[in-house]
Write a structure and sequence with these properties.
mainly alpha, disordered N terminus
Length: about 475
């Protein structure tokens, strides 16, 4: 056979049928609606939940039930995705969101005290978010060709951050027109749209291994994926890198606003964090257009280093313009390393393990994020009395971070920057991480079950099953 004859068969897996990419876009947009609607719920009532508690024990309890369920349940949720399929799990999660919001509407109409019902609603949201993200993230390589995975993963940070940044503006505008219960009903409508979209989609189903134990427990399935991750050199250090950076991102979320607000007020805070979101948006668009970085390990480590340097610059001086530029660069770099981590998992983890792998990834994001939030509340608040609230008492500290109100938070940020730099240095020493791009890809084409996926999904099956794994 001539080279010209052989060429189409080697290129076909990379082009991929466009209908699967269309399915991915519709799926992503529908789930963005759900995540955005869930992010608006607490903003509607202009209620600072944690400021409502006088008891430290009650405060800790509220913190745990709001954030711990997502972290702890994510691996189990991923196992449900691998066992029952992406479409079923997404529908169950979205319907759960709708029922949860409907219960909140009933609470509002009954005019009962809102604090604990709202905490219950948000805790259930956190539980439902675990299967939703595991299903959405693990479906990506089933719908998108290998060489476009970095493009598909580029807007991942926007999925969860947009609601935090734009939510207050959207809620403020909505409340000028309708009452809080009207905003919740609009959220219900958004979730209904998402459910209808998922109902129309055919998502390919990953076939089970012939030797899979049919009645194996969920726990056993979770541990089998942990063993699979350990067997793929470089994957666990990559997840460790993500865990370390996630802890610092939580520190930035807590210390950053306090730092800017102390010397620049609300206007300066809006400028800095809007700049950060724009940086994330611009970086995501660049990755979508260019399909870069091509070398995932290099992109991951370079973005981590850029994040550390930008955070260090932001903490060095109380200047809104400098902090806005630093926020643009820092949050833009988060979009890069999150996209790289997602793409590594999508291309290097066997498809039948992807739901659980994404669950582990979400555990290693949310768990350290809780630790970072705790560090801000304890260490950050303690440093205020040591360093000074309105002025810096120590000339050495003033030389390091400047002399202005709130510089204790700048010290916390600088410590976070140093920690990320250390994590980057340690992870970059791993030969397995540096060579993670050379780990053979695991193509999903030979794992799809055409009978379970439906006729259009069967037509979408990539022709990669007969091709060797690429290096």
């Amino acid at each position: 056979m001539s080279t010209a004859d052989a060429e189409p068969s080697t290129r076909r897996p990379d082009t991929g049928p466009p209908s699967r990419v269309r399915t991915f876009v519709l799926l992503w947009c529908s789930q963005w609606l759900v995540v955005f609607a869930a992010a608006l719920t607490v903003l509607v009532f202009r209620l600072d939940i944690f400021a409502e508690f006088d008891s430290l024990a009650a405060l800790i309890f509220a913190f745990l039930i709001l954030f711990a369920p997502f972290a702890l349940l994510s691996p189990l949720a991923g196992a449900l995705v691998d066992r029952y399929g992406h479409r079923r799990v997404l529908l169950a999660s979205n319907v759960g969101y709708l029922v949860n919001l409907g219960a909140l509407v009933v609470v509002l109409l009954l005019d009962v005290p809102l604090l604990w019902p709202l905490i219950a609603v948000l805790a259930i949201d956190a539980i439902l978010k675990a299967p939703q993200l595991a299903a959405l993230e693990s479906a990506v390589p089933l719908l998108v060709p290998r060489q476009h995975l970095i493009r598909a993963n580029a807007p991942r940070m926007l999925l969860t951050v947009t609601g935090v940044v734009l939510g207050p503006l959207v809620v403020a505008l909505a409340l000028t027109v309708v009452a809080p219960v009207g905003v919740i009903l609009l959220e219900c409508a958004a979730v209904v749209v998402a459910i209808l979209v998922v109902l129309t989609l055919d998502i390919p189903v990953v076939a089970k291994d012939a030797d899979d134990a049919p009645r194996r427990s969920i726990g056993a399935e979770v541990f089998s994926t942990w063993s699979h991750l350990r067997s793929r050199p470089g994957l666990l250090p990559v997840l460790g890198f993500l865990a370390g950076v996630s802890c610092v991102i939580a520190i930035l979320e807590g210390a950053g606003p306090e730092n800017v607000y102390a010397f620049a007020g609300e206007g300066g805070t809006v400028i800095v964090f809007a700049s950060g979101w724009v940086g994330m948006l611009v970086t995501s668009i660049i990755m979508i257009v260019t399909g870069r970085p091509r070398r995932l390990a290099r992109g991951l480590l370079s973005a981590g280093l850029v994040f550390a340097v930008a955070l260090l610059v932001a903490a060095a001086r109380p200047n809104v313009a400098v902090m806005a530029v630093a926020a643009f660069i820092a949050l833009g770099s988060t979009a890069v390393f999150i996209a790289c981590v997602q793409t590594v998992l999508h291309s290097k983890v066997a498809p039948q393990h992807l739901g659980r792998a994404m669950g582990f990834k979400n555990l290693l994001v949310a768990g350290p994020h809780m630790i970072g939030s705790t560090i801000v509340v304890t260490v950050g608040a303690g440093l205020v009395t040591v360093i000074g609230r309105d002025e810096v008492r120590s000339p050495a500290v003033a030389a390091l971070v400047g002399d202005a109100p709130g510089r204790s938070w700048a010290v916390v940020m600088m410590g976070g920057a140093a920690f990320v730099a250390v994590v980057v240095a340690l992870v970059s020493r791993s030969l397995h991480v540096r060579r993670v791009d050379d780990l053979p890809d695991v193509t999903p084409g030979d794992r799809l079950d055409p009978a379970a996926a439906g006729p259009s999904a069967a037509a979408d099956l990539p022709a990669a099953a007969s091709t060797p794994a690429r290096r």
